[in-house]
Amino acid sequence: MLENKFLEKLKDGDRRYTARAISVIETGDSNSASMMKIIYPYTGSAYRIGITGPPGAGKSTITNQLTKFYRSQNKRVGIIAVDPTSPFTGGALLGDRVRMADIGYDEGVFIRSMATRGSLGGLSKKAVDAADVLDAAGFDIILFETVGVGQSELDIAKAADTTIVVLVPESGDSVQAMKAGLMEIADFFVLNKSDRPGSDQAVVALNTILMMRPHDMHSWMPNIIRSIASENKGIEDIAKEIERHFQYLKDNDKFLKRREEKTKFRVKEIVEERLRAKLWNTENVLSMEASLQQVVLGSLSPYQLADELIISFKNHITQ
Amino acid sequence: MLENKFLEKLKDGDRRYTARAISVIETGDSNSASMMKIIYPYTGSAYRIGITGPPGAGKSTITNQLTKFYRSQNKRVGIIAVDPTSPFTGGALLGDRVRMADIGYDEGVFIRSMATRGSLGGLSKKAVDAADVLDAAGFDIILFETVGVGQSELDIAKAADTTIVVLVPESGDSVQAMKAGLMEIADFFVLNKSDRPGSDQAVVALNTILMMRPHDMHSWMPNIIRSIASENKGIEDIAKEIERHFQYLKDNDKFLKRREEKTKFRVKEIVEERLRAKLWNTENVLSMEASLQQVVLGSLSPYQLADELIISFKNHITQ
Asked: Which domain holds residue A303?
């Protein structure tokens, strides 16, 4: 009964129920898994877009402008923003305030910032679960916005149907420094702030790197779209490129294949997180801690202790 | 017999045996765990130093200069360098060449670069195992050099007795962008290239951030050491600060405590990696893949599939 009401409210797009459902996910509540099972059959219709890139590239501005663009087409947009920026800097907070003033009071937009601190590991699982909630709540477009630093953040950006990597002309050396990961997950690039000097060179450099990747004539070749998001320039081009990528996936029977790949990763994460919770129950942690001193003093190797813990885990899990 | 010879050669500091042992670790060979058990009793005397920071801060130069400093004190130095920089950029390769010319041909120095690509997750476990090999091979100082981007890389830097975070004056905004993680793992900071403009402001900014952290009069307060590593300036100050931190740990009964903490993390990683290997054996992966399409089409939820996989894992693990 309660479940039915919850599901109806959520499917109606009720904002309070949507927010509450995501909170259940965030706190890692034990109800989370059963809730996700109930929601799941009503997901799958939203198109999911990942937006990532180095700090300061303008990801939030692009997310906001894209949101306004989709709203003008009467599509409902859900945003999941993940930013591990230090609580010291306040950068994210300021961005949030600007964003709220910009698009936050539109009933067709739902914005959720997810904290990363202390939740590393389970983070991309939570973000994808939250996207399922928004999907079931009838949002047509879901934008994952994450900073392109760290594996968890990249995992979230990768969980999308289309993944966009945002760069700026000055990031010549940030491209240098960038983990290869960012290059490999981009379905296309946005060169934002492209009125700044060095823009043409940045495009040439990026294209050179892209040409070095193994590819054939049937491969999707990531394009580079120029934008000045703060002036709303290039946003329609970005939306067009998203559409072109979607068409490519569909026309080449890659759309469901890709979702299967993402699902594989997701199921792996769910399984591992559950086993980890079982594994590091209080009893096991205490028994490990009791042996740590022996390891540090050299009379027991970490590998022997690991053997012991695995045996005790086997006994525990089958009870 | 063979084991004895291997162990003797390793303890003698034989370079070929040392290199081979690390290769066994890197390939994830099944012999790796038993080798580590044999080696372990001969570890524990090396002092381990983590050096991390954003790309371009001068970590390699500091590592090289510190190595030369310790060599002048007749200490043997092992270096484990982990850099996930894209193979596209060539930055790491160039650095390696400079490094080899500088310190690579000294018999008292052993340098090993570890690849990160494709080995995320197990990476910090492998780096710490490699440090054990160097420890058993009689190296007095082990330097972990990693770029401060991504959880795995931070985990490696944290695996040390003393962790140093290298910054440059221009990283005002890189401090901004920096994940709080870097702030929290630093036992002290090195402000490298400190002859550049903005150096004093960077120190003030850093101190302000540090003062905001919870601390009392008994806490270790991270210092900021200035250096110009390329001119060999400030290197002795860095070595002195490492020594001061070591003394602090010893005088406050924190040295073994800290090693226990690191060991706890390490044992957890070993256990999880082993269970992961058992979990994702070919059979389980195939059975998962067979169900993926159902999940994508909505007739099975990822959480139900996870349930099924966990049940099959339980049956499997107890056989």
From this structure: 280-317
DSSP annotation of A59 reads: H
pLDDT in tens, B286-318: 989 999 999 999 899 999 999 999 988 887 776
Q: Which residue has the higher pLDDT, B52 or B157?
A: B52
Interface with B, mutate which of A146, A184, A264 (most B CBs under 10 A): A264
A292 and A247 assigned to the same domain: no
- Nearest CA to B313 out of A225, A55, A170, A314 is that of A314
Q: How many interchain CB pairs under 8 A, A with B?
A: 200
A52, A149, A158, A275: best to mutate for the B interface, most B CBs within 10 A: A275
What CATH number does the domain containing B237 carry?
A: 3.40.50.300
The whole-angstrom separation of Cα B266 and Cα B124 is 8
* Chain A residues with beta carbon closer than 8 angstroms to that of B207: none
Q: Which of B87, B256, B276 is closest, CB to CB, to A296?
A: B256
- Prediction pTM value: 0.80
Q: Rounded mean pLDDT of B192-200?
A: 92
Average pLDDT over residues B190-208: 89
Bridge partners, A226 (sequence order): A191
Judged on CB neighbours under 10 Å (0-12, 13-18, 19+), B222 is buried
Stretches in chain A below the pLDDT threshold 50: 85-91, 118-120, 173-174, 176-177, 180
Q: Which residues of B touch A299 (CB under 8 A)?
A: 41
Is the ipTM value over 0.90, yes or no?
no
Q: Does any domain span residue B20?
A: no
When divided into structural domains, chain B yields a total of 2
